[in-house]
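Hi R.,

Here's the chain you asked about this morning:
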Amino acid sequence: MFKSFFREFRTFAMRGNVIDMAVGIIIGGAFGKIVDSLVKDILMPPIGLLLGKVDFTNLYVILKNPNPEAHYASLAAAQQAGAITINIGMFLNSFISFLIVAFAVFLLIKGINKLQAEVMKGEEPAAPNTKTCPYCYSIININATRCPNCTSELNVSNTPKPAK
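And here is the predicted structure, written out as tokens:
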């Protein structure tokens, strides 16, 4: 029983789709890190400078402060002191990262669709390989001379000759 389960799992895991998905997840993880760095290290510092030297990673709201008189210089200091915070800056960074990734995926899918449309233009539609039985209306092979479902003899003049 375990051997058949392992064999079935191995067959599933070695399918092209699963391997493609694994490669996509690995590349997506690396791409996500690059975009995250782009947002945190390149985009947000100039935006923060333009908005009056705001460091978005330290943009937060304190919900509950264990020491009401204390003012914290950074988010890390507030959290270390036990303050409960809403991390607006971190959310903004994540949201901008998401928008960049979503836009990149949109461009990728748009390019793939364009390539597929160009490939499909040159192809002729495939000839049908099935027909409908005029007696029982079941779908049968186009080369059949007798319906396998109702056993009716089909009109041979309308049936193409079998391919050799």
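One quick note: The chain has two domains: 2-54+87-125, 127-164.

Cheers,
M.
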